[in-house]
Amino acid sequence: MTHDAHALHPPTATGLDSRKLAIWIFIGSECLFFASLISTYVIYRGQSTVGPFPNQILEIGLVTIGTALLLFSSFFVVLALNGLQHGKRGQFLSFLGLTILCGLFFVGMQVYEFTSFVHKGLTIHTNLFGASFFTLTGFHGTHVSVGVLWLITLFIQGLRGKLTPEKALNLEIAALYWHFVDVVWIVIFPVVYLMK
Amino acid sequence: MPRSAESSFRSGRWSRWLAPLLALVVVGCAEHYPQTTLLPKGDFARMVDHLLRTTVWWATGVFILVEGALVVAMIRFRERPGDPEPKQTHGNMALEIAWTIIPAAILAIIAVPTVRTIFKTSELPGGNSVQVDVIGHQWWFEFRYPMGKDTVVTADEMHVPLGRTVDLRLTSADVIHSFWVPQFAGKRDMIPGHTNHFWFKADTVGTYPSQCAEFCGEEHGRMGFRIVVQDSATFAQWEAAQLAPFAGDSTDSLFRVGKTLFVTAGCIGCHAMAGQPTEHIMSMMGPNLSHVASRGTIVAGMFPESDSTMSIWLRNPQAAKPGALMKLPRPLTEPEIAALVHYVRAHR
Amino acid sequence: MATAALPRDHAAGASHEATGLWSWITTVDHKRIGILYGATAFLFFLMGGLEALLLRWQLGRPDNTFLSPDVYNQVFTMHGTTMIFLAVMPLSAMFFNFMIPLQIGARDVAFPRLNAFSYWVFLLGGLFINSSFLFHAAPNAGWFGYANLTSIQYSPAINIDFWLLGLQMLGVASLAAAVNFATTIINLRAPGMKLLRMPMFTWMSFITQVLLLLAFPVITVALILLMMDRFFGTSFYVPTGGGDPVLWQHLFWIFGHPEVYILILPAFGIVSEVLPVFSRKPIFGYTAMVFSGIFIAFLGFGVWSHHMFAVGMGPIADTVFSLTTMLIAIPTGVKIFNWIATIWGGSIRYRAAMMFALGFIAMFIIGGLSGVMHAVAPADLQQTDTYFVVAHFHYVLFGGSIFALVAGAYYWFPKMFGRMLDERLGKVHFWLMLIGFNLTFFPMHFLGLNGMPRRVYTYPAGLGFSFWNAVATAGSLILGTSFLVFLINIIKTWRTRPTTPIPADPWGGATLEWSIPSPPPPHNFEEIPTIDSRDPLWAAKRKAGGTLPEPVRGSGAGIHMPPPSYWPFFAAWGILIFLVGFLVGVKLPIILAGAALLLVSVFNWAFEPVE
Q1: Which of B167, C81, C491, C522 is most buried, judging by how many CB atoms fall within 10 Å of its CB?
Q2: Is the peptide bond before C529 cis (omega within 30 degrees of 0)?
Q3: What number of CA atoms fall less than 13 Å from residue A124's CA on the CB side?
Q4: Within an 8 Å CB–CB cutoff, is residue A166 touching chain C?
Q5: Which candidate, B27, B5, B26, places its Cα nearest to that of B14?
């Protein structure tokens, strides 16, 4: 997101690039954000006074595919980074493209799921399940979307040849964020879909 | 002690400061505090008070020692002309361990009775108890005494029998309030959707003021109630009187006008009232008025109950207590107010 | 120490600092941003103080009608919100900004533009909350805004919206700043400055950043759920929809208690800088001071429910939270003892800064001891929500934080502005503040124990509260006057130009900020120093036989500094517009416009050439 640290070019005390350190710190903070949202969901599980209830609404099929793709995308982004670092432009661009497609699929899956739930009578104000489900998955979805936007920006830069191996750190940082978003989903998925 | 401080102490510079300070404290202590937590009138509050006093003594001791050390250091080690560089000490392991362990020990001494009291106060003492359900409303307290088939419903005034455990069930009809009986126990929050438990046992007859302790909106500051501790015979009389059907029905014209106005002026929309269709409805917005004139105060302890205060209230509730939820559908004329006051105050 | 750099290009004109409004809007210099934080926070502080005086005036006598209940509730809510989020936190941020890079030997923070962004978001957020006064709709549910009073049903007007959206904005500012400072402290330390050689202020600030990072996301979520309830009709905190208002209390205090340490730890740091310098003795038990700070922060996350003993959580929870709260007293005690041991055997110079630091210790002891009384859960059932609590947290946050921040102001003013505050006025300020503070807040202990609940807009004459309330009100006027003296001191200092530049090291400091000119040049250090001890400047002075030559103000030529940028400023506006879209009734076009401005700014910021 920012090149500031780069600009100053001092050797850092830890040897880590400041941007990389910052994203780790940011991720640490985000853990508490999602921990609070997930806790709220768990606390309100089974507290809804009216239906529809989770077992009447949640379907495991599509979301499992979405989850799998999101997991694969973490792998793809690693390959893309590897490609960029070693100057393999083809590998870099194709795997970054795949990562983005997986992310897009996941977001699309969520949009589809939300729409179908609304059709089945579950909206954000129906009951506590609706409220906490849409809030939790919605905020995760927003994080995925931001990640997709970030990766697309890097992809375009890559196409234009502006993302060179020396700037691989730009992708590495985005990838760290992307992994984090995946890991959060690995927690959300069983909590919401498997322990209904 | 360095000389300057010593001489200034002798010369009375300190006492010139100290005297007004002491006078201030003496004047403050001479005030009468009917809502105080420091003169417990029941088991629960006594346990709490004992614990507080233990803590305060320890705290005072620590205060004197630590502030004393600070003051001594400030005076003894003040800069003097030509001071050499002080000895550069970086720490002292033994000292540091000591002042980690000693506070820990003091805290342990406080923690033991604390935990004991937490558990002791958390359970209802056995024996013959009286149950009271307290419901918080913006901005008044409702008290219900379930008694088999019947329920005594009253507001602003909680009557309790002397020496019997009062078994409280607390909840709220709107936002969070906090039930507080400073003379008998502490506080317990009244939370909508929750039923909270609390208890106390009063050991001195009397009437005690209290008020809501959790900020609950515009008139939080005027959400009071009184605890009336009575010996068991008086309490039984009070209960019987509250349960008795309304016997004051009268044919005098002012009473009839008032009774009609109670309906036409809209009072009935919010208040349960003996002799009116709302008599047995429990979930009305406003306080149950069936025995309102038997209470010592009206408007959540704001006014003593009387003709004049009730008139003031009916003339313009919003002027008396801005934000109060009682809103007159239309202003009342003076004769109407007189009739309503007469009618309502007939309910003792 | 290698600060005696070669005079570079002195004749060709020293570093040209840009001037004018635009230069301040686009600045990315941590020192300028620090000054912006300080000036803004000081104005908010004066406003919060004025609000306090209004409250005290209303409570000065029984059954007073000076403020209506609704206005009183708005004023006390804004007093708390302002003092915590708009005064004490950003006053600390002023010193984080100005001093951390100097203390660790860095040219700037890790992300100068992110730093500017934090400031602008804070400023706009603060103005946003306060603009509610213009609409007679200031927040009115207390600074901890307990649900379900804040629900649409019981607070239908926009007062609460101002509060929750404003706090979200301030949260963004705090989090961005915390990421920045945590990175700066970890990564930009000068060679040789190991973690256990960092100055105490930097250490305590670092712990504060960690607390911010871990505590603020929780309040963000709590506020998001409240936004959902208020704007989108959910029932997270609404009992009739199955929600539980107590959830808010847990989330709020999981944030709220660490927040208390966010307010006090920087103060600990400041005092730990001032005491050694003015007693000419190093801090006593450096390692213990560091680890007690860490321990306090760690325990700070395990005590939140001591704010909720009256909720009725049951004896087990009450016991646990009682004990963890008592535990915190131990590391806090270690700090107090170490401060006293620091001055013990020293040679104490009673300068204004030192007097405020000593006042801090004296007052903080009282606040700490009443804190232990709150840890005694059954006793807390009597004290909670009374004026005893009000007394306690003012002893901690005013007697603690404010005394220390003022000490820091007198101590660092010469470094920040190149001018010395008047010592005589400083001492008048101190004595008025000490007397006014104690007259205002000590009686509140008596009031609370004698049954006066907090947050009441008035009290009847018969409850015995009149006398001490009158005393407290009189005290508050003295307290107000003390800050008038401070203001006069600042204005006087501002108007009298010093004939000769003040020395780099007027107090005999131990840390790196005193090794460079006052005020420092934009690039701070001519050469990044190499550190080999905890008190590097003292070590250098000892080595040089007592004093060092005045450092030369270099031109900074050849030192690459980050260029100014206006994108952080516009990004902050984007966030403001985004949130205003919610305030005016979830107006999608405004929300999207805000988001778009934010996005455009962030993109331009990311691709701005900085080389």
Answers
A1: C81
A2: no
A3: 16
A4: no
A5: B5
Can you point out the beta strands (E) in B149-281? 150-155, 157-161, 165-172, 177-180, 187-190, 196-201, 206-211, 224-230
ipTM above 0.85, yes or no: yes
Q: Are C574 and C541 in contact (CB under 8 A)?
A: no
C-alpha distance from A18 to closest chain C C-alpha (Å): 6
pLDDT in tens, A94-115: 999 999 999 999 999 999 999 9
Q: Chain A neighbours among C 135-194 (CB < 8 Å)?
A: 175, 178-180, 182-184, 186-189, 191, 193
Number of H helices, E strands in chain B: 9, 12
DSSP codes joined into one string, A33-74: HHHHHHHHHHHTTT--SSS--HHHH--HHHHHHHHHHHHHHH
For residue C60, count other CB atoms closer than 10 A to its CB: 18
CB atoms near residue B26 (< 10 Å): 9
- The reply to whether residue C213 touches residue A28, judged by beta carbons under 8 angstroms, is yes
Chains adjacent to C (≥3 CB pairs closer than 8 angstroms): A, B
* Res B13: pLDDT: 60
Q: Write the burial class of residue C313 (CB in 10 Å: 0-12 exposed, 13-18 middle, 19+ buried).
A: middle
> What's the Rg (C-alpha) of chain A?
19
Cα angle B59-B62-B64, degrees, rounded to a multiple of 5: 105
Give the whole-angstrom CA distance, residue C408 versus residue C397.
15
Of C411, C513, C407, which is closest to residue C99 (Cα–Cα)? C513
Distance of CA C389 to the CA centre of its chain: 20
Of C336, C385, C464, the CB nearest to B33: C464
Whole-angstrom CA distances from C241 to A49, A50, A125, C329 are 7, 9, 9, 41
* Residue from C27, C202, C216, C221 to probe the interface with A (highest A Cβ count within 10 Å): C221
Beta bridge partners of B155: B142
Element (H, E) at B203: none
Quote the distance between the C-alpha of residue A53 and its chain's center.
26
Which residues on chain B are in Cβ contact (under 8 Å) with C365? 63, 66-67, 70
| Residues A187, A179: Cα–Cα separation, whole Å | 13
User: What pLDDT does residue B14 have?
Assistant: 62
Beta carbons of B322 and C322 less than 8 Å apart = no
Which helix or strand (DSSP H or E) is residue A161 part of? Answer: none
CB atoms within 10 A of CB C46: 17
pTM of this structure: 0.94
**Do residue B110 and residue C362 have CB atoms under 8 angstroms apart?**
no
* Distance to chain C for B310, nearest Cα, Å: 18
- Would you call C236 and A40 a contact, using CB atoms and an 8 Å cutoff? yes
Among A18-22, B18-22, B80-84, C425-429, the minimum mean pLDDT is found in: B18-22
Distance from CA of C213 to the nearest CA of A (A): 5
| Cα dihedral C126, C127, C129, C131 in deg (nearest 10) | 160
Pick the residue of A6, A8, A132, A166 with the most C CBs within 10 A to test the interface with C by mutation: A8
Contacts for C226 with CB less than 8 Å, ≥ 6 apart: C145, C147, C150, C160, C164, C236, C237, C248
| pLDDT of A12 | 87
Q: What letter would DSSP give residue B184?
A: T
pLDDT tens sequence across B151-207: 999 999 999 999 999 999 999 999 999 999 999 999 999 999 999 999 999 999 999
Residue B211, classed as helix, strand or coil, is strand
The confidence band for C166, taking pLDDT boundaries of 50, 70 and 90, is: very high
- CA-nearest residue of chain C to A21? C183
A131, C238 Cβ separation under 8 angstroms: no
| Partner residue opposite C111 with nearest CB, options A5, A16, A31 | A5
Burial of C88 (0-12, 13-18, 19+ CB in 10 A): buried
